[in-house]
Amino acid sequence: MEIEYNKGIYVKGVDLWLDAEKRVDFSFISHAHSDHAVRHKKILATPQTARLYEHRLGKTKIKILEFNKPTKIKGAKVELFPSGHILGASQILIEKGGVRLVYTGDFKLRGCLTAEKAEIKKCDILIMESTFGLPHYLFPPRTEIVQRIINFVDYNLKRNTTPVILAYSLGKAQEAMKILGDHGFKLSIHSSVLKLAMVYQQFGVNFKNFYEYNPNELKGKVLLAPPFLKNSKMIESIPHKKIAILTGWGIDENAKWSYGVDEVFPLSDHADFSELLEYAKESSPQKIYTVHGFPEFVVHLKNEGFDAEELKIRIKTHRLSKELLLNYDLFRTL
Ligand SMILES: [Zn+2]
Prior knowledge:
Blueprint: E1 2-5, E2 9-12, E3 16-18, E4 26-28, E5 42-45, H1 47-57, E6 61-64, E7 71-73, E8 76-82, E9 90-96, E10 99-103, E11 125-130, H2 142-158, E12 162-166, H3 172-183, E13 186-189, H4 191-202, E14 210-212, E15 221-225, H5 233-236, E16 241-246, H6 255-259, E17 263-265, H7 273-283, E18 287-293, H8 297-303, E19 308-310, E20 317-319, H9 322-333
The structure holds zinc ion.
Zinc ion is lined by residues 31, 33, 85, 106.
């Protein structure tokens, strides 16, 4: 197996790109967030990601592959399996010549209400995201974060203040919509969030108590909107409001002030530091490449005994065969 990094990961021999950041002939799309979804000639994706991707970028040639249904691509066994990041978000396993490569895409191991539960597969080469790859990024238990969000909404509604929840329009916002709607709060939903929520509904994620945003009907409702609208007229014109943002970066001291909001709740769609390490240990790879995150995470992986390095934005070729892997084993036992 040979991989190359040049604005995306290219798996030679299989002739497949993984989340290519430039237009290519054929790329696996791990999920439909815009930093991972570029218009390509043809993509490989789960049915959920395909629908969300087309919603954002229009019709495309798509090879659809469901979770846990392996297929063959250029002599390699290829399988998609859930990453737990957002609806349909997928990891990919590529197996050729006895070598197993896994690319995680964005992932989280904690369960949630709107994404499939992540799986971990054993592999020889692991290419993993490392967004929160510093030791202080440890998220509180999910139930605690959810309770804090509910308390915030409850407290403000009782005081005739409009709670405004800012959450990324794909993934986080639908999770917030599910949490708050199921709890019984009435929701006023910005159209960008609502459109994507309708795609979620097509895949069996059902929402309750929601209404499309109408400035004249905000009383008694929670407003759910994407973060880029924070300084918009839409939000500024609300007379009595408290604003909260949902982001894993809420762990950072001063996050509240840097986002300019009243509250920050660290509800994240990414793995925290402990989940990243847990993933590495469970998959027990010979070699780990990190992408999308702090380069320092490599040091932490090395401290745990892994052969790890960062995949940087430069052309990089890595050749791995079963023989080489065996040698890695020899070196490690020495
Ligand atoms: Zn993402």
